TrEMBL record:
Gene3D superfamilies, A to Z: Immunoglobulins
Keyword set includes Secreted: yes
Annotated SD-repeat containing protein B domain residues: 258-330
Places the protein is found: Secreted
Species of provenance: Limnovirga soli
Transmembrane segments: none
GO CC annotations, alphabetized: extracellular region
InterPro entries: Ig-like_fold (IPR013783), Sdr_B (IPR033764)
Protein name (Swiss-Prot/TrEMBL): SD-repeat containing protein B domain-containing protein
Pfam families to which the protein is assigned, alphabetical: SdrD_B (PF17210)
Keyword vocabulary terms for this entry: Secreted, Signal
GTP-binding is among the record's keywords: no
């Protein structure tokens, strides 16, 4: 656009000087003269829209006084809006009767009869400003020391050295800051008193960016309010400019944090500013700036381009957002050099988190509110999810429920424990348990307080409930047989014995192992039937003399010397409702057998069949027969 303007200007210059045009362009055709007219039209179009053609007007001496117009003269009418100084916040008054405050307007107050004080808050050559077009401000703020903040932006187009100097005065109290583009304070100056004009001067090394002067004005006397400044910024080269569409055009987002102590959703007596709260400015889901509220709860996001943004507070523990909902607010920056004032962020201190009540339990798509069900399940077939819902008091953010599920047998938690720490419990966790009745207990916790639990009884009833066998069949292997004989030559009642071992392996937990001497047979393989003693006692016909199973409680066997005992069945378990694993466990077995005669010519053969009945935790019983033959000589 500037290139076209330059060309058009050149042709316009030639047109204004007809002799030159005649001498240099006398051979031009009418068509080319029309072309010149078009260029003149371009110039007119460009000049008709001066805003688009506006650029940084650079200087080495920038007047930043109050009440100065865009052409450098003083504003002369009371209530005019200063074109450069902007009000960036609203410090809530103690009574809501102050009208005429409009962000970002800073209004002129002309001294003289209209004000009543010919020299009130005035500096020669400047005009005073206030938040309203009047010097009278008859109320203090809710937070007495919270200031109204006015900013005067200026652009630095290149690195260099600048000096800001001048004087200012404020009623009732004022404080001067010079800040860099991020809002970091580079210089602070405090006014000596409301009736004293304070001088200041500061030299700074600066880089390119949008800087600002901030005047904080506090009203503590419930009377007059306003301020004035007479100041200039100088530099060694032309690097300074007023804010424009091309220079320092970004906007300000201003907000304030309040603790709503009475939780009524508005700012009133007794409420306090929220200092030290973190706020994030997001473009979509990306955090582009972070601001922390100051002692007055005030926070800013500086140099924000046109766009739509979300402001989200980081909610502190023990507080709940009242407004805006969820502690987030969406704003649109639609104009350059604007000030966007957010709605106040109000939070209420959450009351102590206390126990409430269970709302419901959901199981198998059925909702139970008061009477929770007891369950009767097939062992190893438990399935489904128990989901509990409990609410604490009050039901506010930070007062949430945590859950602890336990499984107990006879009032004692199982070991190893079966637990869940969400609001759901998967019943399949119970499938390793033996037959019996168990208690599922869910205990809610509100804050740090454990609340009254609820319980559900679960019964695994075996074997009446059908329990299909699962897993691989048991594997039993036998070791060698060791035979020790006794004869009647030295014993009146001879008892022989054999000892053998069986290795047991299963794929599922076991509740019981039972062994039975299913068959015993004695035959003569050499000699004749007289080789068998006819006086053998019952316990010598494969009576169980002793037996142990590793990992399972030992069983006591009656001493075989008691000839009247006859033990042919034995059970291994660890008690009702328990289970154990068989993974190569050794079952050692000793059987009592008949004695033999003293005749060397006799050979006896014994056949033994032992039945193993193995019951697993799924109520499945499997029978395995192990038969073997040995000589008894």
């Amino acid at each position: 656009m500037n290139f076209l303007k330059a060309i058009a200007g050149e042709f316009l210059f030639r047109l204004i000087h007809p002799l030159t045009l005649l001498n240099n362009y006398k051979n031009y055709t009418m068509k080319k003269i029309f072309y010149i007219n078009y260029l003149i039209l371009i110039v007119n179009i460009i000049e008709i829209n001066p805003v688009k053609a506006q650029s940084c007007v650079l200087t080495n001496n920038l007047n930043v006084s109050t009440g100065i117009s865009t052409i450098g003269s003083n504003l002369t009418t009371n209530g005019q809006i200063d074109p450069y100084w902007q009000l960036t916040n609203v410090a809530p008054p103690s009574v809501n009767t102050v009208g005429g405050i409009n962000i970002p307007n800073a209004y002129t107050i002309i001294s003289g009869s209209s004000v009543g004080y010919s020299n009130w808050c005035q500096i020669p050559g400047t005009v005073s400003l206030n938040v309203i077009p009047n010097y009278i401000f008859g109320t203090n703020n809710i937070n007495l020391t919270q200031p109204w903040k006015f900013r005067r932006k200026f652009s630095v187009t290149a690195s260099g050295t600048i000096t800001i100097s001048g004087s200012y005065i404020g009623d009732d109290q004022s404080e001067l800051h010079i800040c860099d583009p991020s809002g970091t304070v580079l210089f602070t100056d405090n006014q000596a008193g409301w009736s004293i004009i304070k001088q200041f001067s500061k030299t700074l090394q600066v880089n390119q960016g949008c800087y600002f002067i901030e005047l904080s004005l506090t009203n503590v006397g419930s009377g007059l309010m306003g301020f004035a400044m007479n100041a200039n910024i100088t530099s060694t080269s032309n690097i300074l400019s007023n804010p424009s569409l091309q220079c320092c055009s970004a906007s300000i987002i201003s907000g304030q944090k309040w603790i709503d102590n009475n939780c009524n959703g508005k700012i009133d007596a007794g409420d306090a500013p929220g200092a030290g709260w973190v706020f994030n400015l997001l473009n979509g889901s990306t955090i582009i700036q972070t601001s922390v509220s100051d002692a007055n709860g005030q926070f800013y996001f500086n140099n924000i381009p046109i766009g739509t943004y979300t402001i989200a507070e980081v909610i502190q523990s023990g507080y709940s957002p009242i407004s805006p909902a969820g502690g987030t607010q969406t704003v649109s920056v639609s104009q350059n050099n604007s000030v966007i004032l957010l709605n106040n962020f109000l939070n209420c201190k959450a009351p102590p988190c206390q126990c409430g009540q269970f709302d419901s339990l959901i199981y198998n798509n059925t909702t139970y509110t008061t009477n929770w069900p007891n369950l009767s399940l097939g062992q190893g077939l438990a399935s489904g999810i128990l989901t509990a819902f409990y609410h604490c008091n009050p039901s506010t953010e930070g007062c949430t429920t945590s859950y602890n599920w336990q499984v107990l047998a006879n009032g004692t938690p199982l070991s190893p424990a079966i637990i869940s720490t969400t609001n759901s419990f998967n019943l399949s966790l119970l499938n390793g348990l033996a037959c019996g009745t168990y208690t599922i207990k869910v205990t809610p916790t509100c804050g740090t307080t454990a609340c009254t639990p609820k319980t559900i009884l679960v019964k695994f009833d075996c074997p009446p409930l059908p329990c299909p066998c699962v897993g691989m069949p048991p594997v039993i292997t036998q070791s060698a047989v060791n035979v020790i004989t006794q004869n009647n030559a030295s014993n009146a009642n001879p008892v022989s014995t054999i000892t053998t071992n069986f290795t047991l392996t299963t794929s599922v937990p076991i509740s019981e192992v039972r062994i039975l001497i299913d068959e015993f047979r004695l035959t003569t393989t050499a000699g004749n039937e007289n080789c068998m003693l006819c006086r053998n006692k019952p316990q010598t016909w494969a009576n169980i003399n002793s037996a142990t199973l590793t990992g399972v409680t030992n069983q006591t066997i009656v001493n075989p010397s008691a000839l009247e005992k006859d033990i042919r069945e034995l059970v291994f378990n660890n008690g009702a409702g328990t289970a154990f694993n068989l993974n190569g466990n050794i079952l050692s077995l000793t059987l009592g057998l008949p004695g033999v005669t003293g005749l060397d010519c006799c050979t006896l053969k014994a056949d033994v069949c032992i039945k193993f009945i193995i019951r697993d935790v799924n109520c499945c019983e499997r029978e395995i027969m192990k038969c073997f033959t040995f000589n008894l000589q």
